[in-house]
Amino acid sequence: MPEIILKNISKRWGSFKAVSNLDLVIEDGAFITLLGPSGCGKTTTLRMIAGLETPTEGEITIDGKVVFSSEKGINISAAKRDVGFLFQNYALWPHMTVFQNIAFGLETLKWKKPEIEKRVQEMLETMQIVQFRDRYPAELSGGQQQRVAIARTLAPRPKVLFMDEPLSNLDAKLRGEMRTELKRLHKDTGSTFVYVTHDQLEAMTMATKICLMKDGFLQQYDPPLTVYTLPANRFVADFVGNPTMNFISGEVLSNNGSSAEVRILGEHFTYKASRDFTIQIGAATIGIRPEYLPISESGSLKGTAYSTLPAGMETTVKIKIADTLLSSVMFGSLDYKIDSDICFDIVGSNILLFDGEGKRVAAGTLSKVE
Amino acid sequence: MNDRQTLSRPEKVFNKLIAYLTKPSNVIVISFLIILTSCIVYPLYSVYSAAMSVGQMDSMMYNSLFGLHLKKGDMTFLNFSMLMLGKYSREYSTSFFWKPLWNSIRMSTYSSIIALLVGGIIAWLITRTDIKYKKYISSVFVFPYIMPSWTLALVWKNVFANSKVGTGITGMLESLTGICVPSWFVYGIFPCSVVMGIHYAPFAYILIGGILRNMDANLEEAATILKADRWRIIRKVTLPIVLPALISTVLLVFSSTMASYAVPVFVGSPGDFYVMSTMLRSLYSSSYSGQSYVMTLVLVLIGIGMLALNQAVIGKRKSFTTVTGKSGQVSFVRLKGNKLISLVIVIVLFFMAIFPIISFALESLCEVQGDYSTLTLKYWLSREEIGGIHVAVGKGILFNSTILGALWGSIKLSAVVSLVVGTAGFLIGYGVSKNRGSKLATLLSNVAFFPYLIPSMAFGSIFLAVSTKLLFLRGTFLLLVIVASIKYLPFASRSGASAMMQLSGEIEEAAIIVGAPWHIRMTKILFPIQKASFISGYLLPFVSCIRELSLFILLTSSGTLITTLLSYFDERNVVQMSNGINLLIILVVLIVNFTINKLTGASIDKGIGGN
Prior knowledge:
The complex is a heterodimer of chains A (about 375) and B (about 600).
Chain A: E1 4-13, E2 16-26, E3 31-35, H1 42-50, E4 57-62, E5 65-69, E6 74-75, E7 83-86, H2 98-108, H3 113-126, H4 142-154, E8 160-164, H5 172-189, E9 192-197, H6 200-206, E10 209-214, E11 217-222, H7 224-229, H8 234-239, E12 246-256, E13 259-264, E14 267-273, E15 282-288, E16 301-310, E17 314-321, E18 324-331, E19 341-344, E20 351-354, E21 360-368
Parallel strand pairs in A: 3-9, 3-10, 7-8, 8-9
Antiparallel strand pairs in A: 1-2, 1-4, 4-5, 5-6, 10-11, 12-13, 12-15, 13-14, 14-21, 15-20, 16-17, 16-19, 17-18, 20-21
Helix pairs in contact in A: 2-3, 2-4, 3-4
Chain B: H1 9-21, H2 24-51, H3 56-66, H4 78-84, H5 90-128, H6 134-140, H7 143-146, H8 150-160, H9 172-177, H10 183-186, H11 189-214, H12 217-225, H13 230-259, H14 262-267, H15 276-285, H16 289-317, H17 338-363, H18 378-381, H19 401-434, H20 439-449, H21 456-469, H22 477-502, H23 505-513, H24 518-529, H25 531-546, H26 562-571, H27 575-600, H28 604-608
């Protein structure tokens, strides 16, 4: 069972800490995305697991076997970790044809010729690139190169597959198609996928679990929907979701068991969570996803339309209220005249409460005190 | 899985060491550091100790002058004080040390300026103007660099020598027009500087042209949009950007010229014009070895100074010589009088590059120098001994076993050296690029460039000093291989590194992941992708080695290599033979160069680091 365990992994370049004390368990057959802004340490983490980078400290276990340990001085080379790696720039060998590129790994494994022939053909068919078999990488488009790279990586049937932003060089439409196919491939191969991306949409749509990092520190490690609805802190809440979450700064006036009195947008609200929580009286932030701010004529809150951005299927409306700009997403195509009055509500049970340090203390409902 | 949580310290260190050494790039860096350091430190020490001890004639001289009882090999400071400090007389120091030094410096300065102007202007014309015959110009212009440096010196002699100067041989100019040019025009600093300047002009062209070609044309276009005129753009934008390349060219040409031996021997010495290298040789061959090693030491120090200067200049300004990658469509400057300029350049190039070959052929066919009515094939085809005036000439070139043996010796040596150097350059390039930025890698790339600082003549004399201690090396083929391999490593390792740096790390990692062992990654992936660059790393040492004279002249007898044999015939004025041999060398070099170029796309430019 190829379970991957990272224990207290750190990577330093001189005095710069790229990854700090990372603990992570990647279950067998999972599709994990390492998500975060550029420079957060996600690629470094991936390369350390694959054995292309040497951690400064910690221990990595793949399938029960210690592949790296600073304590014991163990460092097994990437070649012996039995993993696949899909590179951002594909790293196709320009002097080999598509066939030779895909066959190379199998030849290294000393497969027999007919078997290689069979497996490559199989991969060409799966990736729908049979017609390019004898072409050189330079003669293929970006999307076709990507398919060849995937075929080359999957050909030796790796138990674990690492991918470093593999879709970032494709145009938006192809990216969408490849996402669908990668998810299928994950199912079909039954391998463990570890996927690095800075695109939260990619992470949301494909992963079974998201590992969100910032400045080398793990922020949250949960299934996508949990990350979306119950983010651990303001950073995670802000990073995931588009349009981004509305953060409304306010004040906690009192806190009692599972409820609190808060003041935001110049009004008093009662906040009710499903379980008890404690928060200091004083400055706090309320986080509301745009879909929890429905616009309606009977809405209890009043603002003005700052700008309307219809995208066809849904419309993002920017509402100005008491010097705060809020985003609301409505289904369908709407258009509000700029500066016209708008009424809206705050609904749903996943309104988030963040303390002064940005940590989420509760999720619950918010109702206006009349 | 190992369940023991704690390991003893030695075990941990051992594990870490194993992990470090399982990476081939680390092994390469460490082993080359050890080999190169020992190949440089020990020889330098031998030179120092040789400079501090007296040679055969040194001791006789000092004993008679100062009433001493020194024996050969005794330690003394007299070598220094005689040569540099005027211990015996000021005249002695001046004529044997200070004047040759001054001559060397003057010659090197003039040559660098000539090389820079000629090479720089051609580079600009080719990359930035609509000059005609670009293809012809750019391919023929590198000829002088591919050909041995003395080629042009010999041509100079062939053309301008006349009955009124030196040995009184009649040159082409006199025999065709009757004009006799003055002595300073034939022998001395003027021809030396011009010939060296032209020889190294292609070097300047390759370095400067490479940068101009890769420079983002937008930089200049931005200035055009801002209404700067052409001259202002050159002055304010182009020049500052290529300045590091200019300075580096000047310094490299300067130190190469400083080290040159053949040219001053051919067109200097007959006019009593001596430079450091020629004086060094004459002191050495008259057994004043102590004093000759003092000169070696000085040459080494000057070389080191030059490279330190180069590093200081390049190091600081390197940032903007880096290639931006995509250079857009350059709009060419329209030359006024394009036709005339192109024609002039084509004609001048003909005299620099093609005429020498014709000249050598012609001179090797003249029974009487410069008299074209006495044409004969006997110096090529005679199966009988040719009677010489001063010296036994032997049979015609094509049947002369000494000449053919020497040619074979040169080819063999060059082939072995190019294999060693090209492979070492490839490996060093790999080690350095894999360990990019680490202290050891930086140290290795500096150490590998170090031999460049040491003038060939000095390098030869250093290894001569070594071979007097390690007797099993003395006069052997192995010694020549070692010397040449170290001497030619700098450019090979540099081009190896630059070729490796162009490959993204992912290319190799993709092969590591599928478990390809190191030798497969090297031979099946990395080498084939940058084939042209790496083969250039093999080509350059071959070409340099086959035409090398000054490096070997102290180390081997004249019959071993074709170049030493050439020097032998030249010194004895057997003009037909020296011209014929020269033609032979040039043909071999050109044929090898063009064959490899056509087969693999490798070229001398790439070997030097141009694009």
